């Protein structure tokens, strides 16, 4: 039998736990978005570097990166995608093609609030995500 003095206890407990539960759910969602964006950037730079290694131009490589990372750019809510592509250059006796891309990932959950607990912290609500890929150029 219930004690009449316990009325509303469940509602109070839920009011205490619900914000923490929602925060954890949003942080899990943000982690998934972040990993998707990271994997998309790695894929985009890898495709671009492969294209450069096989004789593609830097313009075509940057276009490949932009197309391959389009969904990551939308999902990350970043204003723009920074790209850089370098054709076959000699590095340590081998010819390498490289491509890199970066963007600012914007968190939907208040992760930045927790990072700003330290007054000396420079944390923000966004995180720079970058990727660089290199491919060996075939001998000519």
Query: Strand percentage, roughly?
Result: 15-25%
Give the number of DSSP strands: 3
Which sheet architecture does the biggest sheet show?
A: 3 strands, antiparallel
Kindly state the percentage of residues in helix. 40-55%
Low-confidence stretches: none
How is the largest sheet built, in terms of strand order? 1-2-3
Give the helices and strands as they follow along the chain: HHHEEHE
Radius of gyration: 23 Å
- Average pLDDT confidence is 83
Tell the overall outline: rod-shaped
Number of domains: 1
Q: What is the distance, rounded to the nearest whole angstrom, between the alpha carbons of the first and last residues?
A: 86 Å
The number of helical runs is 4
Structural class computed from helices and strand pairing: alpha+beta
Describe the structure.
- The chain is an alpha+beta fold.
- It has one domain.
- It has four helices and three strands; from the N terminus they run H-H-H-E-E-H-E.
- A three-stranded antiparallel sheet has the order 1-2-3.
- A hairpin with a 2-residue loop joins strand 1 and strand 2 (94-106).
- The chain is rod-shaped and about 85 Å long.
- The protein starts with 8 loop residues before the first helix and ends with a strand.
- 23% of the residues are buried.
- The mean pLDDT is 83.
Comma- or semicolon-separated keywords:
4 helices, 140 residues, alpha+beta, 49% helix
Write the layout of secondary structure elements.
Blueprint: H1 9-53, H2 58-68, H3 70-76, E1 82-91, E2 94-106, H4 111-115, E3 126-136
Helix pairs in contact: 1-2, 1-3
Task: Tell me briefly what this model is.
With 140 residues, the protein is of the alpha+beta class.
